[in-house]
Amino acid sequence: MSKGLIRKYAKQNNMTVEQVKEAYEIEKQLARILRNSTRQERQRLQLYTSLYDEFFQKVPSHTQLKQKLGAETWAEVVAQTMQFLKRFLKHNSTFLEIGAGDCSVSLEVAKYVEKAYAVDVSNEVTKGLKIPPNCEVVVSDGVSIPVPVNSVDIVYSNQLMEHLHPDDAFDQLKNIYKALKPGGLYICSTPNRLSGPHDVSQCFDEIATGFHLREYLISELYKLFCEVGFSRVIFCKSQKRIHLELPLNPIVVSLIQVSEKVIGSFPYAVRRKVANRLIVFRGMTIIGRK
Question: pTM of this prediction?
Answer without folding.
Answer: 0.91
